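Q: Give me the 3D complex with nicotinamide-adenine-dinucleotide.
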Amino acid sequence: MSAKITMGENGVLQVPSEPVIPFIIGDGIGPDLWRASVRVFDAAVAKCYDGKRKIIWKEVLAGEKAFNETGNWLPEETLSVFREYLVGIKGPLTTPIGGGIRSLNVALRKELDLYVCLRPTKWYEGVPSPVKRPEQVDMVVFRENTEDIYAGIEFAEGTPEVRALARFLNEDLHVDYDFSSSTGMGIKIASEEGCKRLIRSAIEHAIQHQRPSVTIVHKGNIMKFTEGAFKQWGFEVAEQEFGDYTYTWGQWERTKESKGQEAANQEQKEAEQAGKIIVKDIIADNFLQQILLDPKSYSVIATMNLNGDYISDALAAMVGGIGIAPGANINYKTGHAIFEATHGTAPRFANTDTMNPSSILLSGVMMLEYMGWQEAADAIVSALSATIKDKTVTVDFYNLMEDATLLKTSEFADRIIEKIL
Ligand code: NAD
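A: Here is the predicted complex, encoded as structure tokens.
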């Protein structure tokens, strides 16, 4: 019997055998990709659980389809369904152009306080990549999703607000800076609770998935009380809440100061031998070099919003681009989670049945994992990998591969399903 996914009192998601899962079909190429992907999800679940489990899909409206049918880009009904059913999945949505309409994605994130933007990046054999060793990339990015300059507190050049802010900074806070009359200003936000909940989720993920390290990526050398505080709070969470599982570079620094470098190195070595997760940090610009030079040294990444934006896309490009990069926005406390393709609506290709559904497919895989339906998730990943390895692919990969066979979106899904059944 169909039922809702709920959050148990123990903080563990309760998933019935026939959960109702809301989905947004998406705009542009969304419907083509969804129609193909949903067949793959259903086939994997039916096969892995002998028909004893089944997803009951519930369509909710957002984007152009919602606007055409209801006159509203994001109907209240959609928000309340996601609020009620906890876990959902969405295709790409057009960002409406025009005053007063927020990005629909941002509205969903804000409404449900989805504070983690989760972006795993892993290479699948055969996927065309611009780097020499894409197989060395296996990272999971935890990007803070609610703060930083994305809080939306900014003032345009020439307005009374920006002049008032400049005056306040100069006169009340004694900031010695000559603001020209053509200055716009934005405010960067980093709260202790906002940063800590993100880093906590990253460390919990590392523990659950037996990852060797969590790297805090930041610009604390320049922005000490936001990015620098993020790093500081990260080490605090690791040491105070997960001391039995982690060893931080903060600890290493302190041991070095009190007992010397050799003792600190020895301490870190012992922690590694004991299987502890190393919690380290790196400045963001250096990190963007290191993912190209030495990607295998990084596993789970915790970072603030803006850095996370750049890092997720750079990593996605290394393993095959946005056609295959999945994502999710999650609140691990309430259980709310929306899984989504990371690409946009590519409107020129709408209804052509040509685009790559892998990003939505792998978002669905993340969703199945989140629900604890690991067998179905694994079945999709191995069938998808085998299909790409056979060089039977959609046009984006076809153009970059030698001797490949070109498939439509729907045919690509057929091949994957054949390999599952
Ligand atoms: P886009 O991702 O839609 O398209 C850029 C290009 O990437 C396309 O022309 C296409 O060549 C390629 N591409 C995208 N998805 C692909 C797929 N599945 N398979 C193969 N190739 C693919 O980016 P855009 O053109 O900047 O944005 C179009 C619209 O999408 C805008 O309205 C934008 O606001 C919106 N958008 C939505 C989301 C979202 O809902 N999560 C994300 C990004 C952009």
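A quick observation: The radius of gyration is 23 Å.
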